[in-house]
Amino acid sequence: FLPHGIVEPYSDMELKPLWLTRSVQSQQESNQNDRCLIAIPAGINQKKSVDALMKKFLAENFTAILFHYDGKVNEWNDLPWSKSVIHIAASNQTKWWFAKRFLHPAVVSMYKYIFLWDEDLEVDNFNPRRYLNIVKSERLEISQPGLDPKLSEIHHPITVRKKTGNFHR
To answer: Which InterPro entries does the UniProt record give (predicted)?
Structure first.
């Protein structure tokens, strides 16, 4: 038999100390209502882009997971935020391979919003909190920020950002 508290029906991707103090526990409990998760496939060649993404999202209290499809994890240790995110490595895998295995409903159900983004998205003019406000006000269940064709590679025309309004369908 396993000790009490080891087996749980649900989990999350929050990093927790081995021993919780009352202040840490109360802080974690206060952040439970609006938990957000961002998961990004990350190759070392896109380190600069991923760094920009992480700075934006971690500043807004997102929990972050990097899926290292090139197997290179230690090369990220020089970034100040590296130890505060979860690193999962498996060489030559796609974001969907990682998502299927590590973003299981029993884990992600604790999060109100889940972002599964490509590593090369331009975020210079992106504000995660503003985006979430639009998602909430429009009651969107699935969404993607519009892409600027001058800054991002466009694979599907519907993903091009329109200049009018907050969103388009």
So the answer is: DUF707
**Burial annotation 99-133 (CB, 10 A radius, 16+ → b, else e):** beebbeeeebeebebbbbbebbbebeeeebeebbe
**Does position 80 have pLDDT exceeding 90, yes or no?**
yes
Contact yes or no for 48/74 (Cβ under 8 A): no
Residue 53: count other Cβ atoms within 10 Å of its Cβ: 27
pTM equals 0.78
Domain boundaries, the chain: 33-159
Task: List pLDDT tens digits, range 111-125.
Answer: 899 989 888 777 788
Provide the 3-class DSSP secondary structure of residue 130: helix
Residue 135: phi, psi to the nearest 5? Answer: -60, -45
